Amino acid sequence: MKAIKFTEAELDFLQNHYELELLDAENYVGEIKNILKKLGVIEREIAKEKPVKKPVKKAGRPKKEKKATAETVAPPVVKPVKKTAVKKGAKKTTAKAVKQPELPKP
Q: What are the structural domain ranges in the chain?
């Protein structure tokens, strides 16, 4: 996997840019809250909305599955095998090599 390397100036620029974006977003949310207050929406409903933290998955091996015990495993179902009937007078055929007669050499 390729890595991206930034200089200190580039990192400072990106940090400032994203901080400004965050401030703009927070101001926008504040304006919307003011509009909702003017419309008569109760502040308790606004306060209920909190960001939900997603669980962070840890990298590593997956858990091993426990082997099933005899109590939990059902015995396999055995299907009866049908025997095919052989007709009387039918001959079993096998592939035989056919020998060709040798021709005398001139």
A: 8-48
Name the nearest CA neighbour of 22 among 10, 14, 34: 14
Tokens representing 41 are 């929406």
In which residue are the tokens 């509009």 written? 35
Structure tokens at 7: 């200089």
Cα gap 16→1, rounded to integer Å = 28
Query: CA-based Rg of the chain, rounded to a whole angstrom?
Result: 40
User: Average pLDDT per run of 10 along the chain, which is 106 residues long?
Assistant: 91 95 95 86 63 74 70 66 67 63 70
